Amino acid sequence: NNGSFKVEFASTTNQKTTLTLVDGLGRIKHNQDISMNEKTLSITLPKVSAGVYVVQIISEGKVYTKQLIIQ
C-alpha cells in the first residue's frame, strides 16, 4: 500500500468518528475526523514511511483496529 486505502463500514452513523494511524512503536502518525455517512470511505495519508501500522477507528465509544502495511 502506498498510503491510499479504502475503509468499508458495516453501517453508517452521523456520530463523531476518528481515524488514527499508529506506528509499530505506538506513535500516532496521523489523526483525522472522518464521516461515516457512506459505507465506503477513501483515505489518502500524507507522507508516511514504509512500515507496518495499525489503523484505529473510534466511533460511538467503540474502537476498531486493523493492520496496514505501507510499502
Can you walk through the features of this model?
By secondary structure, the protein is an all-beta fold. The protein contains no helices and six strands. It has strands at 4-8, 13-23, 28-36, 40-44, 51-59, 62-70. The strands form two sheets. It has a four-stranded antiparallel sheet with strand order 3-2-5-6, with no helix packed on it. Strands 1-4 form a two-stranded antiparallel ribbon. A hairpin with a 4-residue loop joins strand 2 (13-23) and strand 3 (28-36).
Summarize the structure.
With 71 residues, the protein is mostly beta strands. It contains no helices and six strands.
Cα-based radius of gyration, to the nearest Å: 12 Å
Count of discrete alpha- or pi-helical segments spanning 4 or more residues: 0
Decide which structural class fits the backbone. Answer: mainly beta
Number of strands: 6
Order of helices and strands: EEEEEE
Average pLDDT reading: 84
Report the principal-axis shape: globular
Provide the spatial order of strands within the biggest beta sheet: 3-2-5-6
The major pleated sheet works out as: 4 strands, antiparallel
Distance between the termini: 6 Å
Contiguous uncertain segments of 5+ residues: none
Amount of helix = under 10%
Estimate what percentage of residues fall within beta strands: over 45%
